[in-house]
Design brief:
By secondary structure, this protein is α/β, with parallel strands linked by helices. The protein has a single domain, classed as 2-Layer Sandwich (Nucleotidyltransferase, domain 5). It is built from four helices and seven strands, in the order ββββαβαβααβ. A seven-stranded mixed beta sheet has the order 1-7-6-5-2-3-4, with helices on both faces. β5, α2 and β6 form a beta-alpha-beta unit. α3 packs across α4. The radius of gyration is 15 Å and the shape is globular. The protein starts with a strand and ends in a 19-residue tail after the last strand.
Amino acid sequence: MAERARAPSVGVWLGIDYGNARIGVAVATLPVAIATPLTTLAAQPEGRFWDAFDAFVAEWQPKGFVVGWPPAPATGDPHPMHPAITAFANTLTARYAKPIYWVDESLTSAHAEQLLRETGKRRWQARKARLDAVAAALILQTFCDGHATVHPSGALAHAYGTPYDTATP
């Protein structure tokens, strides 16, 4: 069963907004706790993505990862992205053996879109390159603010049910 968790007091964390086409990456150092967008990486080809992500992990030496989790639809069925995000998180665990925290990513992309528009990026093409990184920063900021869910060891292997009951404020 998932449990609510506060972010650890010290360390670097990488936030991730996972998508099939693009993956946003952000960073925050606690206790300062201000998330900053780093980049948006192409999800494919997968090998190139992991090479780039390995470089971020080597550079930042994170304590763990914070991954956005879309809530299930009102029907109670899993969100269509849940299997892909689960597979991604399992790969993170296998590659780096670091904790993963989940954050409800509801409306983070819409909020990121609004923030980018407010900074003067009026054209979609200008916003698209930063959108997922800003969404990752919003996800990570939620974690820094103490609204995250940690899952016990092995919970990621179970695709559905209570392990995916993400934190709600």
